[in-house]
Specification:
The protein has helices at residues 40-49, 67-70, 73-78, 88-96, 159-165, 179-184, 189-196, 204-213, 234-247; strands at residues 8-13, 24-27, 31-34, 57-61, 84-86, 108-110, 117-119, 122-128, 137-143, 146-151, 170-174, 221-225, 257-260, 266-270. The chain has 273 residues and is an alpha/beta fold. The chain has a single domain, classed as 4-Layer Sandwich (Metallo-beta-lactamase, Chain A). The chain has a 7-stranded mixed sheet with strand order 6-5-4-3-2-1-14. α8 packs parallel to α9. The radius of gyration is 17 Å and the shape is globular.
Length: 273
C-alpha cells in the first residue's frame, strides 16, 4: 500500500495458521511488521524480493503469543534491535513459549489496549479481540488520514472489534474456515470445538455476514486472512464473502475491493492513492 505523498508502503502476506505470514506493514524508510511467525531467514528473503530490508522496520506489533505469530520476534528484537510491541500479558506469554529460542529482554515495549501510541508517522491502537492466547489484540493504524485495521485469530466480533472495523479504510480480517469443511474434516473433536468456539476462529460465513451488515462507504479494501490449509481455500473464502455481500446489494469490484490472501506465498504489494 503506497500513500504517494508520504511514500507509505503496505505489503500484505498471509498463509495458513501454522506456517503463515500474517500480514506485514512496511513503510519505505519507516516500517512496521505485524507478527513474525516465520523464520528470520524467510522474512529477510521475502523483504529482499520486494526491494526492502530489515533496516526499514522500526517495530514488530504482536497480536498474541501463539507460535505461528511470534517465532522470529526474539531474533528481530535481540539480534537486530527491532523492538517488539504488545501488552504486558502477551510479552509474558511470548517469553514462556517453547518456540522462543531467543527470549525478549532489551527489545520489550509495552502498549495498552485502546491507549494510542505514536510511532514515526503512525498512530497505533491495540484493542481486545476474543481468542485463546495469553492475551489477544487487533491493531488499528492511522496515517495521513487513512485507517488500517488488522484482526486475525478471533472467535467472534465483539462490539469493541466492530468499532475498529467500522473505522477502517483498509481491513485485514480473518476468514479461517468453511464450517462444513471443518465439521467433515479430519480434526479431532476437541480441536473442532476449540475452533468453533467464541475464543476460536472466524468462519467464512460469519465474517461475510458481519461485513455485509456493517459495510460503510469509507471501506475500500478487504483482505481475508489466516485461511486454514485443511478447512478452507482462498477461492472458497472469496466466493462465500462475495456472494453474501452481493445478496446485500454490495458489488465487489465497484463498492469495495475483496482479496483472499494466499496461504503459502507472498500476496504482493498494493498501491493506493
Amino acid at each position: 500500500m503506497s500513500y504517494p505523498e508520504n511514500g507509505y508502503t503496505l505489503s500484505l502476506i498471509d498463509t495458513d495458521n501454522l506456517k503463515g505470514y500474517e500480514g506485514q506493514e512496511l513503510h519505505i524508510g519507516d516500517g512496521i511488521l505485524i507478527d513474525a511467525g516465520i523464520g528470520i531467514r524467510t522474512i529477510r528473503k521475502v523483504l529482499k524480493e520486494y526491494g526492502l530490508s530489515l533496516s526499514m522496520i522500526r517495530a514488530v506489533l504482536v497480536t498474541h503469543d501463539h507460535a505461528d505469530h511470534i517465532k522470529a520476534v526474539g531474533n528481530l528484537g535481540e539480534k537486530f534491535g527491532i523492538p517488539g510491541y504488545s501488552t504486558p500479558e502477551i510479552h509474558v506469554g511470548i517469553n514462556k513459549s517453547y518456540c522462543m529460542t531467543e527470549k525478549l529482554s532489551t527489545s520489550v515495549r509495552h502498549l495498552y489496549k485502546e491507549t494510542p501510541i505514536e510511532l514515526e508517522d503512525f498512530k497505533i491502537t491495540a484493542f481486545e479481540v476474543p481468542h485463546d492466547g495469553t492475551d489477544n489484540v487487533g491493531y488499528c493504524i492511522e496515517a495521513d488520514g487513512k485507517v488500517f485495521t488488522f484482526l486475525t485469530d478471533l472467535g467472534c466480533i465483539t462490539p469493541v472489534a466492530a468499532q475498529y472495523i467500522c473505522k477502517a479504510h483498509y481491513l485485514i480480517i480473518e476468514a479461517n474456515y468453511d464450517e462444513e469443511m471443518l465439521k467433515m474434516g479430519p480434526y479431532p473433536a476437541y480441536l473442532k470445538e476449540r475452533i468453533l468456539g467464541p475464543n476460536g476462529h472466524m468462519c467464512n460465513k460469519d465474517t461475510a455476514e458481519f461485513l455485509a451488515n456493517n459495510m460503510h462507504e469509507n471501506l475500500k479494501y478487504i483482505w481475508l486472512c489466516h485461511l486454514s490449509k485443511d478447512n478452507n481455500h482462498p477461492e472458497l473464502a472469496y466466493k462465500t464473502v462475495e456472494w453474501i455481500l452481493r445478496n446485500k446489494g454490495i458489488c465487489v469490484g465497484t463498492d469495495v475491493q475483496l482479496i483472499a490472501l494466499k496461504r503459502n506465498t507472498p500476496t504482493g504489494m498494493y498501491e493506493f492513492e
